[in-house]
Amino acid sequence: MKKWFSFLSNRKETPKESQGELSFSDGRAAYQEAKKLFYTNDQKERNDEQALLLFDKAIESGITDAYADRAFCLQGLKYHYDAISDFDSAINNCPNDANLFYGRGHSKKIIGNYDCAIIDLNEAVELSSIESDLNKAYNDEMQIQGGSSVTQFYEFQLQDIMDRKESSQEKNLKELYERRIKEIKRRNISSK
C-alpha cells in the first residue's frame, strides 16, 4: 500500500549518527531518489523494489525519516511483518503522526493481529482529531480526494478491522484467513 499522503514526503530529514560506511549526504540523495521512484504518479517510472533498496541506503546512513516511507514501500511489496517493524521505528521518531498508526494497523490487520490493529486504529482516530498542522494537511488532502475528514476515514478502517476480526472466527472462513496469513512474505535479509 502506497503511503497515503505522499505530499508529506518532502519533510526535512533528521540526521542521526551513521552506522555504516555511507555518508549522511549519500543517504539524503538515496532518500530523495527513493521518494521520487516510490511516490511518482507515472506507473512507468515507479519502481518499488529499487525504491526499497534506496530507502535501505538512506536508513543505513542515518536518515531516520526514511523509516516511514520504507514502511509504506514494504507494505506495497506485501512485506507486512517488515513494514510493522519500520512503522515501530517511524512512530518512535514521530509519535503524533496518526497516519503511521493507520499504516501499522493496516499491516497488523493483514497478518491477522486484529486486536493490535484495533489499538493502532483507535490511536489513529484519537491523534487525527487533535488540531495540528499535520492533521490539517491530512484533512486537506482527504478533501481533495473526495472524503470529508481523515478521522472519518480511520473510523471506517477501524470498523473494517473489527468486522474482519469477527468474520475470521467463523468456521467456514477461519481456514482461509489462516492460509492467507501463512502466505505473507518476509523480506530476505541478504537481499538488503
β content, as a range? under 5%
CATH superfamily: Tetratricopeptide repeat domain
Query: What CATH architecture would you give?
Result: Alpha Horseshoe
CATH class: Mainly Alpha
Total domains: 1
> Structural class, from helix and strand content?
mainly alpha
Q: State the total count of DSSP E strands.
A: 0
Order of helix and strand elements from N to C terminus: HHHHHHHHH
What does the overall shape look like? Answer: globular
The CATH topology assignment is Serine Threonine Protein Phosphatase 5, Tetratricopeptide repeat
List the total number of helices.
9
Please give the radius of gyration in angstroms: 17 Å
What is the CA–CA distance across the termini? 20 Å
Helix content: 55-70%
Calculate the mean pLDDT score and round it: 88
Describe this entry's structure for a reader:
The protein has 192 residues and is mainly alpha-helical. It has a single domain (23-186), classed as Serine Threonine Protein Phosphatase 5, Tetratricopeptide repeat (Alpha Horseshoe). It is 65% helix and 0% strand. The protein is built from 9 helices and no strands. The chain has helices at residues 24-39, 48-60, 66-76, 80-93, 98-110, 114-128, 133-144, 150-168, 171-182. Helix 3 (66-76) runs antiparallel to helix 4 (80-93) and helix 4 packs antiparallel against helix 5 (98-110). 35% of the residues are buried.
